[in-house]
Amino acid sequence: MTDSVTIQIPGLPNRNVGPNVRHFYKAKNKYFQDEKLRFQDYLVAHQCQFDPLKESVELEFKFYPADKRKRDVDNLIACCKPWIDALQGFVIPDDSCQYLRSITARYEDRVSDAYTVITISWKD
């Protein structure tokens, strides 16, 4: 049996933490920490804080944009790194391949307000 938790976060991942941004390291690190804390707040609000799972999890990201701008899905995944790091201690012991087996991403149709849906699933 597979269990899962789905979290909806307003907006798309912060592009300032992506690999293509030309920020000074300290500025980029501040954006990274802010995004990590923002996601940890969502984990707490959705009551995802429990003893870290000993088995592996799978992540699925669905990005719902609010505009017609073309985006690279690989860059959106890279911008999710703070969110993936935030799972440590909440859902999994660490984000190594031992505990994080797969990450999938989908770019969905345009909506009025942008949001990102993250589904964390594991076998019970």
Q: Report the principal-axis shape.
A: globular
- The CATH topology corresponds to 60s Ribosomal Protein L30, Chain: A
Report strand %.
25-35%
Instruction: Tell me the CATH architecture.
Output: 2-Layer Sandwich
Number of domains: 1
CATH class: Alpha Beta
The main pleated sheet reads as:
4 strands, mixed
Number of strands: 4
- Percent of residues in helices comes to 25-40%
Please trace the helix and strand order, writing H or E for each element.
EHEHHEE
Rounded mean pLDDT is 81
Strand arrangement, largest sheet?
1-4-2-3
Helices, by number, come to 3
Secondary structural class:
alpha+beta
Q: Going by CATH, what is the homologous superfamily?
A: Holliday junction resolvase RusA
Work out the radius of gyration. Answer: 14 Å
Low-confidence stretches: none
Description:
The chain has one domain: Holliday junction resolvase RusA (60s Ribosomal Protein L30, Chain: A). It has helices at residues 25-45, 73-79, 81-86, and strands at residues 2-10, 57-64, 100-107, 115-123. The mean pLDDT is 81. The N and C termini lie close together (6 Å). The chain has a 4-stranded mixed sheet with strand order 1-4-2-3, with helices on one face. The chain is of the alpha+beta class and 124 residues long. The longest helix has 21 residues, at 25-45.
